[in-house]
Amino acid sequence: MTIDNKIIYFDNASTTRIDSRILATYNKVHLEYFANPSSIHKEGQKSIYLLNRTREELLRLLNLKEYEVIYLSGATEANNLAIKGAAFRYKNRGNHIITSIYEHPSVLEAFRQLEKDFGYKVTYLYPNKEEIITVEEVEKALTDKTILVSLMAVNNEIGAVNPIYEISNLLEKYPKVVFHVDACQAIGKVEKEINYSKVDLLTITGHKVHGLVGFGALMKKKKIDLLPLNSGGGQENGYRSGTEDLANATALVEAIKIAINSERDNFLHVKELANRLVDYLRSREDLYELNIPTIYNPYIINFSTKTRKGSVVVEALSNNNIMVSSTSACHSSKEKGSYVVKSLGKDDKIANNTIRVSLDYTNTMEEMEIFISTLERIIGEIR
After folding, report:
1. Can you tell me the distance from the alpha carbon of 255 to that of 210, in angstroms, rounded to the nearest whole number?
2. Does the active-site annotation cover 330?
3. What share of the chain is helix, strand, coil (3-state, %, to 5)?
4. How many of the other CB atoms lie within 10 Å of CB of 257?
5. Computed from CA positions of residues 341, 18, 214, 98, in that sequence, does the dihedral angle turn out positive or negative?
6. 335 with 327: CB under 8 angstroms?
7. Of 59, 278, 330, 372, which residue is the catalytic one?
């Protein structure tokens, strides 16, 4: 049974429910600041003033100096602009680029395209036994032809937290190497906020922290140049042409502000929920295998069913109004099994039967208890 037949939503790494405060901000700005920020009349100037204020506030919230903000349609576009824009702009320096084998599809596929269609040499790093990408592995992969490293801050399937600040300290010694970080699963969702001050390019999005779908941003150090992927009117300092979405920019800043200001309390709450689930899964090693790091981020708990098909369990949970996922939503319908779990050295059976529970501060312990009891019942019923 669910709570009064309401949905229990444990798929927050895919997207979160929009916060009513953020929606109210979006609606207010949409109605009151409707003029195109590129227009030179009074209403247009009012819009561009507010748009510039959002950029200043976003950089302040993320404690980034000497950066600029490029607003885009979301994290996929931001990752593509960062990776391809840097690779194309600095191709005169070299043609070697580095990423990890368990990145988000919007990163991996960008690297694969550069490798296949444009002749770049790619090194795909594997996580270590702690399921993170180490500074040592990054350093070992560097060559005199390396121009770009792209790594996620928090893995979207297993919750591994990579040592981004330590890696940025290393890459500071290699001034011709651009460092890009996808921080979509990290902003507002880590125990101790990651220091991004030495990262060259940083991807964020709003819908992972109760903002709107279809909008994100790329933070870029001013000294870094990118080859634009869109041609047009030269908005976003020439990096992303197209009419600016002021209402969404304002809503994004509001979402990031709320997430960061409540980060510590939210983390402690989610950790309690995650610990309860992990304790249960460990008590039933005959049924489940955990696919999480030794030190795990509690917002994402990944496990595999040993005796039942994971996809069947996910469907059965859905029929009981409990929403979880089997892999990242960005490739779950296209790829059999989790390439992220496979990268950890797990066999196909485990990788093909993953279940990802991704939590949020809006979830409750009552919901977790219902999830555990329902999961136990479903595992017993499926033949």
Report:
1. 6
2. yes
3. 40, 15, 45
4. 17
5. negative
6. yes
7. 330
Residue 45: which residues within 8 A CB-CB, separation 6 or more?
A: 39
Task: Looking at the structure, tell me whether residues 73 and 107 fall in a common domain.
Answer: yes
Res 330: pLDDT: 53
Q: What is the pTM of this model?
A: 0.94
Pairing of strands 300-305, 216-221: unpaired
Specify the pLDDT at position 337: 80
Please check whether residues 174 and 295 belong to one and the same domain: no
> Rounded CA gap, 187 and 211, in Å?
12
- Nearest partner of 74 among 203, 254, 236, 240, judged by Cα: 203
Domain membership of residue 318 as a residue range: 3-17+262-381
pLDDT along the chain (383 residues), means of 10: 75 97 96 92 94 96 96 96 98 97 96 98 95 96 98 96 97 97 97 94 97 96 95 86 93 97 97 98 96 92 94 96 78 67 88 96 98 96 82
Considering the domain architecture, whether residues 59 and 195 belong to the same structural domain is answered as yes
